[in-house]
């Protein structure tokens, strides 16, 4: 979903070899270059969760990039959900833990 302002919320779960290869840092850099806000985190099941908000075109570029990732990643799947933005973030951050 996209608001009249052209802003949207993307939630993506990335599967494959995406932990221990710099994937969160790579997503962080891409999201910031696209002027998006949100978070990226490793999940216990070996996936990476990306939640981002910003312009729909920027989010679409992020979603495309998730299929690529950094050099040592091997992405096997990306599940994307769209919704209206919550405006809860002011920057893009990496969740450590």
Task: Explain what the structure shows.
The structure is a single chain. The protein has helices spanning 23-33, 56-66, and strands spanning 7-17, 37-42, 48-55, 74-83, 92-95. The chain contains 2 helices and 5 strands, in the order E-H-E-E-H-E-E. Helix content is 23%, strand content 40%. The termini are far apart.
Q: Total number of β-strand segments? A: 5
Q: Major sheet, described briefly?
A: 5 strands, mixed
Number of H/I helices: 2
SSE ordering = EHEEHEE
**Backbone structural class:** alpha+beta
Summarize the structure.
By secondary structure, this protein is an alpha+beta fold. It contains two helices and five strands, in the order βαββαββ. A hairpin with a 5-residue loop joins strand 2 and strand 3.
What would the keywords be for this entry?
97 residues, 5-stranded mixed sheet, 40% strand, 23% helix, single chain, alpha+beta
What is the strand and helix layout of this fold?
Blueprint: E1 7-17, H1 23-33, E2 37-42, E3 48-55, H2 56-66, E4 74-83, E5 92-95
Parallel strand pairs: 2-5
Antiparallel strand pairs: 1-3, 1-4, 2-3
């Amino acid at each position: 979903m996209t608001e009249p302002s052209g802003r949207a919320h993307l939630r993506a779960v990335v599967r494959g070899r995406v932990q221990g290869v710099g994937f969160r840092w790579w997503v962080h850099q891409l999201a910031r270059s696209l002027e998006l806000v949100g978070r990226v985190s490793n999940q216990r099941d070996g996936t990476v969760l990306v939640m981002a908000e910003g312009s729909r075109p920027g989010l679409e570029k992020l979603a495309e990039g998730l299929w690529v990732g950094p050099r040592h990643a091997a992405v096997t799947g990306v599940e994307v959900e769209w919704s209206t933005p919550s405006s809860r973030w002011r920057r893009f951050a990496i969740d450590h833990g």
